TrEMBL record:
<dbReference type="InterPro" id="IPR045584">
    <property type="entry name" value="Pilin-like"/>
</dbReference>
<feature type="transmembrane region" description="Helical">
    <location>
        <begin position="12"/>
        <end position="32"/>
    </location>
</feature>
<dbReference type="GO" id="GO:0015628">
    <property type="term" value="P:protein secretion by the type II secretion system"/>
</dbReference>
<dbReference type="InterPro" id="IPR012902">
    <property type="entry name" value="N_methyl_site"/>
</dbReference>
<dbReference type="GO" id="GO:0015627">
    <property type="term" value="C:type II protein secretion system complex"/>
</dbReference>
<keyword id="KW-0812">Transmembrane</keyword>
<keyword id="KW-1133">Transmembrane helix</keyword>
<keyword id="KW-0472">Membrane</keyword>
<keyword id="KW-0488">Methylation</keyword>
<dbReference type="InterPro" id="IPR000983">
    <property type="entry name" value="Bac_GSPG_pilin"/>
</dbReference>
<protein>
    <recommendedName>
        <fullName>Type II secretion system protein GspG C-terminal domain-containing protein</fullName>
    </recommendedName>
</protein>
<dbReference type="Pfam" id="PF07963">
    <property type="entry name" value="N_methyl"/>
</dbReference>
Amino acid sequence: MRKNLGFTLIELLVAITLISLLAGFAIANYSASQRNGRNAKRRADMIALQQAYEQYFIANSTYATPCSTMIVGYIQGTFPTDPKPSQSYYQICSATTYCMCALLEDGGGNSSTSNCTGFGLGDTYFCVQNQQ
């Protein structure tokens, strides 16, 4: 009598299918985690910029114009940039008001209730604006 050593074709196909499904789920979860991380950085950057603008206003009784160059001394580290090189943060500044927005990858923004104009409304943008 001959001993069967090895696997049948059906067993191999089932194993390959299960491994493929698990790999697909892992890759999808990894991509979602990266996207959520980038969106969290965008929100944190907007809040940090808002705090810097408000500190500038307290010190100078006016908001910084142009937007990015005047508040460098009020930001810890370098001026924040979007985590994706192909995207950037959107800013509108004047001596009495400012609005800054970041385009989020998966919605969850707040610009539908914001007074910021020019960036498009909806839940795809996270915006901060002057508090004074």
